[in-house]
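Following the same procedure, sequence and fold were stored together, as reproduced here.

>
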Amino acid sequence: MNNFRKKLPGTPYFFWSVLFIIIPLCMVFYYGLTDKSGAFTLENIIAVTTREHSKALWLSLLLSLIATVICLLLSYPLAMILCSRKGGQHSVIVFIFILPMWMNFLLRTLAWQTLLEKTGVINSILSFLHLPALNIINTQAIVLGMVYNFLPFMVLPIYNALAKIDENVINAARDLGASPVQVFFKVMLPLTLPGIISGITMVFIPALTTFVISNLLGGSKVLLIGNVVEQEFTQASNWHLGSGLSIVLMLFILLNMIVSAIFDKDGEGSVL
């Protein structure tokens, strides 16, 4: 009876998981592994090897990797700055940093479109100053959109890992003669590795599967694998092919999560 009472609060979550996670996943696997007649087939998964689909997949992987690396290079210094601030100043900086996350994802991306398009704010200013216009509504703009939207997901786990480091450990390394570079690479970096891996996972996965950013900032010229899947479901009404390509994406996501689990066994990189 006591065990039942302990499990009772988790009942709504169980039903939520079944309705909105388990059942949709089962549907994806069913459609992805069958044809229109309902017969088992692997053609929907093998379709990723076609020229169009493989090009979209590799471009998605490349842009996701670039965005993840940029987020990491920007996030570590930002997280260190946040950790160096104390009291109210620290709270204000954190608030300012996460404030854009309260805005709808679509609106944030549309704002970048307004800035970067050919007749946008930036080119209007350049035109007023009699300077040549910039044409970056393509892959460069997509990377900018990814970095802007997903940067907080890299900063927060790294900041969380840095905040857990005992200052006495760093001071001890300095007292033993370690230079600032040695302190960083031999003490701070290894201790924050779980946060780094967690941040990479939280940025790489949504960047790989995104289609809104490429739709709005790609100038209708860049087709990522997320766009291909979205078009198969919404335009071509080919749920079988769309599901098959989704299964391929799941494999990359699972691989990413396995790497994260290996390097962050205790969940130290969690933002919670």
In short: The CA atoms of residues 135 and 267 lie 43 Å apart. DSSP finds 14 helices and no strands in the chain. The radius of gyration is 23 Å.
